[in-house]
Each structure stands twice: as structure tokens, then as C-alpha cells.
Amino acid sequence: MLNAGSSSLAGMTVDPGYPQVTTELPGPASRRWLDRKDRVLNGPLRDSSGVPFVEARRHDYLIEDLDGNTFADHVSAWGAAPYGAHPPSVRDAQLAAWDRYGMEISNYLQTEPVIELAERLVAIAPGRICRVAPTVTGTEAVEGAVKLARAATGRPMILSFLGQYHGESTYLAAASSTDTSVPTTGNAQYVPGFVFAPYPQSFRAPFRRGPGPFDDTLTLDFIQDWLLRLQVEPSQIAAVLIEPVAGEGGILAPSAAFWAGLTRLCRTHGWLLILDEVQTCLGRCGTVFAADLWGLEPDILLLGKGLTGGGQAIAAIMATEQVLADSHTHLGGTYAWEPAACAGALAGLDLLADGAVLDNVKALEAIAREELVPLIGLVEQVGDVRALGAWVAVEFVTDKASITAAPGFQWAVHQNMLRRGVLAISEDNKPLYRMQPALTMPPDLFRWSCRQLAEAIAEVSSAQLSSAQLSSAQLSSAQLSGSQVSAAAPVG
Predict the structure, then answer these.
(1) In 10 A of CB 435, how many CB atoms?
(2) Phi-psi sector, 309: left (phi>0), alpha (psi -120 to 50), beta
(3) Which of 173, 291, 309, 441 is the most exposed place for a label (fewest CB within 10 A)?
(4) Which positions ≥6 away from 104 have C-beta within 8 Å?
(5) Rounded CA gap, 107 and 109, in Å?
(6) Secondary structure of the chain as H, E, C letters
(7) 376: nearest Cα among 209, 212, 207, 163
(8) d(CA 137, CA 335)
């Protein structure tokens, strides 16, 4: 068992055990179910190489598969399970609301949990945000925000950034340059209304080779000197759509200087600022909203994932009086803010309220910096380590000089980590390995996971070096053998 004691955090008792993997992956029971899956599910879901097992149950901060193997959960339902497996207060609140209301369409008929949740969100929102429009998913929230921005300004264009993730609808997947593992094909050229700049970051910069750090305000120069001169007039832009931290892009957090410049552009040209906080809201970055890190005051704020509290699907579009009070733009839908989902979200806000969760998130960030950041100077293939709140990304490269992306190295690290009992976020054609634990994961378990990652990186690096040395030795041997044969061969 993990030596964390039975500690109480935000009303939840946690005492997880160390993960253990005792079979091959997938084990025999998982393999049987994966074979069944492959016969009935669609293309991408037929590939189980990244997660080679079938989940049997989750408890605390561990996932158990059908063969009894356990894994530290650094996916946290891609951020939608912020308090570990089925937090009791969220579950109880949902069940009570379900027993009272059943399924209800809040887009037509109001209930108390809907109104209370809207009030609670307005009370903690940054800046001038004062109204809420219910919706179900982050994708729908972004779609709604684009509609609202165009309706509020009468302008057609949206300025966004390459390498973000804004959802899975046809329109957004094509038009918002989402950072999916494989670029969307056959759609982007048919979707109007967007212009793009590179997402600001200091590790890589467009039109520059090799490692940074780079000044991420270069992106603002590109917008002013190129986009606004040669592609779109400022008066045509309704809004800027941006993630305050680009999660799928590798936990990229822009500088204060970038935000100062971007907000200045918004004021100068009358652009609305849309912050997509579907991934970053409600504690993920160590603050209630990522906007709080820089004192940002958006015109439209998008919430999802963590808003669920680990319960039912729910998302929100929040905005200023100007944008949302008298708008007749159609938003929401049949399942938007079903009463039980609102009750679960309220219970999640209760867990966040006393400060213990945010304190734990800051402790996790400190552990990641202590355990993983030193790897940058120790391992040639570790290009960068970015830790922000309960969020970590390690970016792998072939070498420090070129910082060429090394997805193969990352994939090998991920496979090594699975055998060690750690499940994080990995895709075989990205150089990024991301850990996204629950906000309440015990620090001891998180530190153990980080140390497993450091050891896995060292093993893969050592194996790669040994392989290169072997190849070099084989080449030298072949060259020597070839020269001897050549010397002995008769002439003519």
C-alpha cells in the first residue's frame, strides 16, 4: 500500500495502493474483450496499442483492468474526473436530483439546480462575466461562442491559433486547426471565417531553427505585420478564440507579455476575447480559472470537463452583459444542464471552495518541477518539461541542437510506463507525453509516478544508445570485412 496514510482531502478519504502489472499487456481477459471490440467499433477505436487493456473498475486514483493489473490514473477521464473515481458528494447530489427531477429539458423548463449553478459560476467568474448559457460539451460551447461573437459584433471573422484543440464537430475540426494527432483532411479548405497565427510558445518558434527560449510575442508581430496587412482587415474580426493554456499542444502557457499585447490588440480593434477554458477551468492550473494567472478579463469564457465534478456531461458559455443578456442566438439543447448534472457540478464547486484542492494542485506542480525538470539537463532526448498545476508535458526530441520531434522515443517511454503501472496521455505520432492526474491525487502517488517516468526515460535512452552503438559496431565490422575482401580479390 502507498505510504500516504488515510489522508482526508476536501471531504474525501484516500488510501490508494501502488499500481502493479502482473500479466502481459493485454492480459488474456482484456485480449478477449479487445477482440470483440475490434469487430464492432469504428476505425480509431480499433487500435488498442496505446491502451492495451480493458478497464474493469476505477477506485480512488487507480484503474484496474480485467486481468487484475492496476495503473495510476494520469488521464482523469481527460480532465472530466477532477476528484478521482466517483467522489461521494458528487454521486450523492446527482442521485438526489435524479430522484427528484428525473430527466428534464432545462432549455425549456427550469429547476432550482440550474439557477443555483448559474449563480455560483457568475460569483466566481473573472472580470465582467455575469451571465451563463447552458450547454453539454466543450465542442458545443466553442460553437456557441463563435455564434455569439459574430452576433454581438456584426463581424464575420475569428482570429485563432494553430495547434489548439476546440472540439470534434466538422466545422471546428476543419476550421480551428485542432491539435489532433492526424491533421484533418478534406475539410479545411471548405470552411470560411477563420484566420490563424501560430500558438505562442518559447520552446519552438516558426521560421526559426533549433532550440529557444524564444520570445513568444513574435506571434503578435506576425498578426500585426502579416495577417492584418495581407489577409484580413482588423474591422472584420469579431473575436480572438484562444486557449489560455494549450493542453493538447503540450501544456503551452503564453507569457504575461504576450497577454498584454493580445489584450491591447483587442481593445484597439474592438475584438472580443474568447477564452476556451474547457480543459483549464476550475483548478487544473492551480487557480480557479487559468485567466486568473494573468488577470485576464475575457468577454466570453468557456467551461467544460472539470465543471462536471466527475459526474454527468455539462458545459457552459459565460459572457458579459453586452454579449449574452439580450442575445437570441440559439444555444443549449435537449441535454443541456439536465438537473442531476447541475447538482453534480454544484457538489464539485463545493469541493473546490475551501482551498485544500488548490493547495494540493500546487503541491503536485512543485513535485513535477522537482522530479522531472532536471531531466532536461540529464537526458539528450528530453527537450522540455512543462508543469502547470496538475498538468505535466514532457516533449521529446532527437537531440538538443536540432530539437527535432521524437514521437518514436515518446511512444517507447509510454509503453515502458504501462508496464510500470502508469497510464498517461500518449499518441504514437506526437513527441508529447502528458500526465493529467486528478486534482486531489495524493502527492506520494504522484511523486512515485514521476519517478517511474524518470526511470522509464533513462531506460529508453540507454536502450537507444546501446542500439546505436551496436549498429555502429556492426557497420565498422562490415566495412572492415568489405575492405579485406576487396584487398584479397583478384584483379582482372
Answers:
(1) 28
(2) left
(3) 173
(4) 111, 338, 339
(5) 6
(6) CCCCCCEEECCEEECCCCCCCCCCCCCHHHHHHHHHHHCCCCHHHHCCCCCCCCEEEEECCEEEECCCCEEEECCHHHHCCCCCCCCHHHHHHHHHHHHHHCCCCCCCCCCHHHHHHHHHHHHHCCCCCCEEEEECCHHHHHHHHHHHHHHHHCCCEEEEEECECCCCCHHHHHHCCECCCCCCCCCHHHCCCEEEEECCCCCCCCCCCCCCCCCCCHHHHHHHHHHHHHHCCHHHEEEEEECCCECCCCCECCCHHHHHHHHHHHHHHCCEEEEEECCCCCCCCCCCCHHHHCCCCCCEEEECHHHHCCCCCCEEEEECHHHHCCCCCCCCCCCCCCHHHHHHHHHHHHHHHCCHHHHHHHHHHHHHHHHHCCHHHHCCCEEEEEECCCCEEEEEECCCCCCCECHHHHHHHHHHHHHHCEECEECCCCCEEEECCCCCCCHHHHHHHHHHHHHHHHHHHHHHHHHHHHHHHHHHHHHHHHHHHHHHCCCC
(7) 212
(8) 10
Q: Which distant-in-sequence residues (6+ apart) come within 8 Å of 157 by Cβ? A: 193, 194, 195, 232, 236, 237, 238
- Tell me: the pLDDT tens digits for 306-322? 999 999 999 999 999 99
**Residue type at 233 in one-letter notation:** E
Q: What's the whole-number average pLDDT of the chain? A: 90
Question: The C-alpha cell of 226 is what?
Answer: 502579416
All residues at 6 or more sequence positions from 240 whose CB lies less than 8 Å from its CB, including other chains:
158, 159, 160, 262, 265, 266, 271, 272, 273, 274
- Report if pTM > 0.70: yes
For residue 49, report the phi and psi dihedrals to the nearest 5 degrees: -65, -30
Cα–Cα distance for residue pair 21/27, rounded to 1 Å: 10
- C-alpha grid cell, residue 362: 500546487
**Are 368 and 441 within 8 A, CB to CB?**
no
List phi, psi (to 5°) of 220. -65, -40
Domains of the chain, earliest start first = 15-73 (no CATH), 88-353 (3.40.640.10), 355-474 (3.90.1150.10)
What is the mean pLDDT of the segment spanning 147-160?
96
Q: 183: Cβ–Cβ under 8 A, 6 or more apart, which residues?
A: none
